Amino acid sequence: MMKKLPYLLSLFLLLHGCAIKEINYHGSFVGVHSAQSVSDIIATDIVSFLATKYPASHTEIALLPATSDKKEEDTFSNALENAFRKRGFTLSAESHIIVSYVFDKIENEEYYIQLKINNDTHTRLYSSQGSYTSNWSKLGQ
Fold it and tell me: How far is CA 13 from CA 27, 117, 135, in A?
């Protein structure tokens, strides 16, 4: 883990400096195709994380739509929407809880998610099979 720490810190600083601006102005972004099974696993983990902060059956979320170079191959956005609904969240454009995300792959074949919930940004890494390889990290503050 100590060998990965400088790499992870560099990644988080890069994401904080670049991708957050993308989220603030353009919504969510999907930069990689993933297998449906991997998308489902990661989406379920993300929704479980949000459920620790907000009661699912009593919460409306404004999920900002994703832009993608490969829109027809974007299995992740649909998996995330389905996971929210399955857990009991209501998706609404008029919510005070705004969620956006960046889903992409890094050089060592791990997926990363950058999740922005209103003004809080969290990140997590996942293996190519969809299991998480890091804990949730909060950027900033």
Answer: 20, 18, 16
Instruction: Give me the DSSP letters along 79-99.
Output: HHHHHHHHHTPEE-TT-S-EE
Tell me the residue type at 32.
V
User: pTM of whole model > 0.85?
Assistant: no
pLDDT tens digit sequence for 6-51: 455 455 545 554 444 333 435 899 988 899 999 999 999 999 999 9
Task: Say how far apart CA 55 and CA 136 lie, in whole Å.
Answer: 19
Measured at the CA of 24, the angle between CA 21 and CA 25, to 5 degrees, comes to 90
Report the greatest alpha carbon distance in the chain: 44
Token pair listed for 46: 């993300």
Cα 109 to Cα 127: distance, rounded to the nearest angstrom? 7
Question: pLDDT per residue over 60-103, tens digit each?
Answer: 999 998 886 666 678 999 999 999 999 999 999 889 999 999 99
